[in-house]
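Subject: for your reference before the review

Hello V.,

The reviewers asked for a structural picture of the protein, and I figured it would be easier to keep everything in one thread rather than splitting it across files. Below is the amino acid sequence we used in the manuscript, unchanged from the supplementary table.
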Amino acid sequence: MSRGDRVNRVSGRAFALHAGAWWIWALGLATAASRTTNPLLLAMLIGVAGYVVAARRTEAPWARSYGAFLKLGLVIIGIRLAFAVVLGSPIPGTHTVLTLPEVPLPEWARGVRIGGRVTAEGLLFALYDGLKLATLLVCVGAANALANPARLLKSLPGALYEAGVAVVVAMTFAPNLVADVQRLRAARRLRGRTDRGLKALLQVGLPVLEGALERSVALAAAMDARGYGRTAEVPAAVRRTTAVLTLGGLLGVCAGTYGLLGDTGGGYGLPLLAAGLVLALAGLWLGGRRSVRTRYRPDRWGARAWLVSASGAAVAALMIHAGTYAPEALHPPAVPLTPPTLPLWPAASILIGLLPAVVAPPVAGNRSAGLGAPPAVAGGGWAQRNDGDQPNPQPATHSKETPQ
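And here is what came back from the structure prediction:
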């Protein structure tokens, strides 16, 4: 690697936004999406997430997966509509679209039907429901495309390092798979072969599987060389206290999150969430004493990270508050058939989510800061080739973490 490449990587680390800020922003948009079934507001949330991704994503492999999340969202909507057609809908309606042959079912299956009358009201309800789920998935895809998973792993507490490695590997499986498929399809086109159809898909699948297995073996060797899973000895009382605090905190976080996402649990959701976070953080702090991992150049949580995360939290808070004064606008009825209206203040609150497109640092070059490194060990010092694109499976001599 040349001196200029090293300077670019250092400067990229200095100006890159903290990965946790992107996830907080995206989860705020997802929380807002969970509070409404208005298709206009959901479309605005998808547009806000897509614009920020287009403005601030890099050229890393995981950043290319956003399109796959959009396509998966369309598939979810299609499946939800298909279920409404085949299995019916709990929403009564008077506008019949079509009538399918109904399959007679036994008495014990009362309440379930296959086929029968399909109404426009039932299809509209299914469309609203499927669009809501697709929007949640798109928001998660935005975080996956914007946040460097390796940098997010570096920021985790020591107690969650092992679990974080597993989560990051799982998160980056789909982006790496998409990148492999695109590379192999391009190679087939260069050789004059078709890249469409079932036959081409089968011929691409075997090299993709082989590459995934090779990447897994190299990843396992690097993790073992860095002492993955080794812990320090701590007293038994500390271990028990850590388990109680962490478990109690996570239960509080789950109950509080459920209350916030529900329509009637806003009163108890926030106190439970705050108490659970305090207990969980205390447990993680104690659990970190067992970790022998060190951090190399930890990411800083700067003013820009505060602004990005605050924009997502503001969108979620304002949408939750909108449910108290405009519940009809957030949940347009499917019966009777009426066009949804765009409420002014909830729509204006969604536009706050565009703030990261302005305050987040722009990315130039997009290959700096180790963007081509493997996800679970990019913070652990993999050696890079001169092009900075593909990882060398041999660990570098300047390891970013020093296991004991």
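For the response letter, the relevant points are probably these. Residues 198-225 form the longest helix (28 residues). The chain is about 60% helix and 5% strand.

Happy to draft the paragraph if you're swamped.

O.
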